[in-house]
Amino acid sequence: MTRSFNETEKVVLCWLATADARNRPNVSPKQIHAEADDGRFLIADIASARSVKNIRDNPAVCVSLIDVFLQRGRKLEGVAEIIAPDHPDFAALSAPLLAMTGGSFPIRHVIAVRVERSAPILAPSYTFYPERSEADLRADAYRTYGVRPLGE
Predict the structure, then answer these.
(1) Whose CB has fewer CB within 10 Å in the chain, the N or C terminal residue?
(2) DSSP class of 10
(3) 9 DSSP assignment
């Protein structure tokens, strides 16, 4: 895949959707994530026991990456693998994730997603108000969330 999954540095959380062996869904936020050189999407298992168990039972996953202020992002669908600390690739795959944590969180496993499909995610405002600029959308989001950009 030539396009970066994480199209913007503004994505703070990604959302990992899994399903257990009985197809009961689970969606949980993941704070530490990165794109690997080989095109896999990596997620740190910091406190993700249910996600890890679900992936071991059913490796099909979906990840959503959203810039909440632009209300757009990417949806990644694929097959996940749990990389444990005793796996030969754990050190290399966990390195960019550990760098993001600054040592603040232990990484129990790396969730490595082999992406099979990627698609844009757009808020309905992109369809209903195509004339609106990104600056307008961002300003609306700041008002909605009651925040201001740094430096203002």
Answers:
(1) C
(2) T
(3) T
Q: How far apart are CA 41 and CA 5, in angstroms?
A: 8
Give the number of other Cβ atoms within 10 Å of residue 34's Cβ.
19
| Cα–Cα distance measured from residue 133 to residue 57, given in angstroms and rounded to the nearest whole number | 44
Sheet of 41-45: strand order equals 25-30, 14-19, 60-67, 72-83, 109-122, 41-45, 33-35
Mean pLDDT of the chain, nearest integer: 89
**112 within 8 A of 92, measured Cβ to Cβ:** no
The answer to whether the predicted template modeling score (pTM) of the entire model surpasses 0.70 is yes
Tracing tokens 């632009």 back to the chain, one arrives at 70
Task: Give the amino acid at 40.
Answer: R
Q: Each residue of 116-137: pLDDT tens digit?
A: 999 999 989 888 988 988 888 8
Name all domains of the chain by residue range, CATH numbers in brackets: 14-122 (2.30.110.10)
Instruction: Work out the number of other CB atoms within 10 angstroms of the CB of residue 54.
Output: 24
